[in-house]
Amino acid sequence: MAWNNEANKMRLSVWIITAAALVPPLCQADMAAANRWIDQEFQPSSLSRAQQQAELKWFISAAEQLKRQGVGRVRVVSETIDTHVYESRTLSKAFEDITGIAVQHDMVPEGEVVDKLYAAIKTGVSDYDGWISDSDLIGTHYRYGTVVPLSDFMQGAGREYTNPGLDLADFIGTAFTTAPDGKLYQLPDQQFANLYWFRADWFARKDLKDRFFAKYGYELGVPLNWSAYEDIADFFTNDVKTLDGKRIYGHMDYGKRDPSLGWRFTDAWLSMAGSADKGIPNGLPVDEWGIRVASDQCTPVGASVARGGAVNSPAAVFALTQYVDWLKKYAPPDAVNMTFTDAGPVPALGQIAQQVFWYTAFTAPLTQPGIAAVDKNGNPKWRMAPSPHGPYWKTGMQNGYQDVGSWTFMKSTPVANMSAAWLYAQFVTSKTVSLRKSIVGLTFIRESDIKHPYFTKNANRYGGLIEFYRSPARVAWTPTGTNVPDYPRMARLWWANVATAIDGSKTPQAAMDRLAKDLDEVLADLQNTGMQHCTPRLNPMLDAGRRLSNKGSPWLKIDNEKPRGETIAYERLLQAWKEGRVQ
Q1: What pLDDT digit, counting tens, does each position of 137-172 carry?
Q2: How far is C-alpha 297 from the geometric centre of its chain's CA atoms?
Q3: Entry pTM
Q4: What are the residues whose beta carbons fall under 8 Å from the beta carbon of 217, sequence distance 6 or more?
Q5: Which residues pair with 385 in a beta bridge?
Q6: CATH architecture type of domain 6-185+402-459
Q7: I need a surface site. Which of 3, 9, 157, 355 has the fewest CB within 10 A?
């Protein structure tokens, strides 16, 4: 529940009184530490100081029970982004000071998190008591049965260690961490979307607007389709060339042969082109990866066009072709050798006009005073907007990707250790802490934080991020869905195959043909793994002509893959978000 009406405030008061009655006398040092952290770090908060104290008293009491069972330390892991750096360096220390349970919060590249988690799934031996891994693995967790369903844990072994003020209804991402069985498998810890990013100050310059209109016959603005994005990329790279004394580029991306290259595609690039079926969150029966499921909406039956999938369909091949062309023609020359992490800070240097595929996880670094993308008053010169669509995209399809890094627990972990890690997970996502964490990392997980007056007052600092997350339209940006039966094993196939199109050893069509074949082979192998739910069952192979359609995915090739460019004024988009529309 959200604390936004009188009835909820009354329930909160009852909870405070009840919690106080249940908590035994506490060591003065424990509450002294809690009060110190409340005053020095955990402000502002969506809770009052008294409410924060009540919540931390509960954590202290729950930790005492675990320490009596011999649990004095837990080990957890996450990828390395600003939000998790804050957790590892600051919140883990706060948790230890307040509860007496030490936390080793490791941070490693996301690919390593996935590999380690997959090893734990396959071997039954977990190196960590808790994991922050993407909700993209929800289809894997549901099928393999090695991850603890939190819905069961909170009602069973973890009941006494589940915060009465957790307020699951306040989390904005639980739909993405809930499996087809209706159970919650993961608790969201951070969320960020991929959106369009552009230098609003350059786009507003009359001289540039006039030059663009003279060349292309329409207004320089936020691109609605890939044609306009390409025109704008060409304009800034090859016509404008320099601004503010710097060589500039009309596009930014990354292309190094690295696991993050795979995410660049599985994070909805094909569906942004229009390769999937209509339907939120991911398209049914063919999803944003191009994997088709059977009529039960759960059993994967193929990735290749021959088996009814869309991985090597005309729309998917077009998506890869455009990616390679734009990377080589309009991005800085060294972008082709960059990873996700390398490329993220580049727009802050002041040489990039726009980026079609930009993760909002990089919002915080792009708001720092003194960088080229921020003015002398500390306001961003850039803005974010919905990414443009490819020519195959149709209304009702997924708009883009949203990452939901979530707490995940393995059945192989001893219950006491898991309970302590669960306690830490709840602490770093608690209302006492989450608003401050949102300010640091700008990766929102709670409605109460998004709607807090702090972000109303400071919205202009974040280039449209607050308006996006306050809009109901955000639900059209979704993580990988449940069509993907084995995310770790299948995700690694993407970057290896996409890389062959970048280095020119294969054409985009050949690269996607190979990827589709590889994915089908994994699905075939999974038919014999004994998954607990929705085991893959491959469709028979048919000629592409019998699979391609103008009624559903895989879609027939269209004659004109570059229609006339279309743009829109940013102010109109912002108003649409405020009204709950996508655009």
Answers
A1: 999 999 999 999 999 999 999 999 999 999 999 999
A2: 23
A3: 0.91
A4: none
A5: 196
A6: 3-Layer(aba) Sandwich (3.40)
A7: 9
